[in-house]
Amino acid sequence: MSRRRPPFVFHPLYRRRLAADPRLPTGRAGVLFDLAVAAGLVAPDQVRQPAPAPRAWLELVHHPAWVARALAGRLDARECRLLGWRPTPAWLDRVRLGVGGTVLAARLALEEGLAVHVAGGGHHAGPDGPGAFCLFNDVAVAAAVLRAEGLVRRVLILDLDVHQGDGTARIFARSPEVATVSLHARSNYPLRKAKSRLDVALDDHLPGPA
C-alpha cells in the first residue's frame, strides 16, 4: 500500500525576489519548491496555497503597538538596523503570507500527521521588535493560533538553525505550555543569547559522523 504524501504549503509569490541585498534571499523558497517538484517529491495535488496572516494573529505574540508600526512600515533607524534593512511594502506583504503559510502548515500537520512549508522561519523576531531579517515570528504565531483555537494545549518548538531561536525563546519565556528547544552554534548570532527551555550550544568545527 502506497503512503499518502504530505501536504506542501506554497504560494507563487514565494518565487519573487524582493530585496537587492544578497543576504536576504527572498526567492529561495521558490527554488526549493522547484527542486522538490523536479525530484518528484511534490505533485500538484499536494500543494496548498496560504492566505496572509491577519493582524489579530500577529498580535497574539507581538505587542499590538509594534505590529501596527511594522505593518505601516514606520520602523525607526534602530529597528531597521536590527532587522538588517528597511522593508518595502511588497516585502511586508510577503512576510504576512509566510506567516499564514506556517499557520496553514501547522493546521494541516494536525489533520494529516505531517505538512511541509518552505517559507517562514522568522525565529529572531521577538515580542516587541525585529531581528536579523525577521519581522514577525511565524512559528510562534502558529503555536499561539492553534492554542487560542483550542486545537492543541501544549507545543514543543524544536529549532535546528545555526543561529539560536532567540526571538521565540523571549516570546514564550513565561509560557509553560510552550517549550522552546534550540540547537545552535555557540559562537554564531546572536551574540547575546536568550534563554530557551533547553539550549544546546555546539562548538565550531565539530567532527562529522564516522
Features:
210 residues; alpha/beta; Arginase, Chain A; three-stranded parallel β-sheet; globular
Short description:
It contains 7 helices and 6 strands, in the order βαβααααβαβαββ.
Topology:
Layout: E1 8-9, H1 28-38, E2 47-48, H2 55-58, H3 64-71, H4 77-83, H5 89-112, E3 116-117, H6 138-148, E4 155-159, H7 166-171, E5 178-185, E6 198-202
Parallel strand pairs: 1-2, 1-3, 4-5, 5-6
Helix pairs in contact: 5-6
Written account of the structure:
The structure is a single chain. Helix content is about 35%, strand content about 10%. The strands form 2 sheets. A 3-stranded parallel β-sheet has the order 2-1-3, covered by helices on one side. The protein has helices spanning about 30-40, 55-60, 65-70, 75-85, 90-110, 140-150, 165-170, and strands spanning about 10, 45-50, 115, 155-160, 180-185, 200. The chain contains 7 helices and 6 strands; from the N terminus they run βαβααααβαβαββ. It is an alpha/beta fold. The chain has a domain at about 10-155: Arginase, Chain A, CATH 3.40.800.
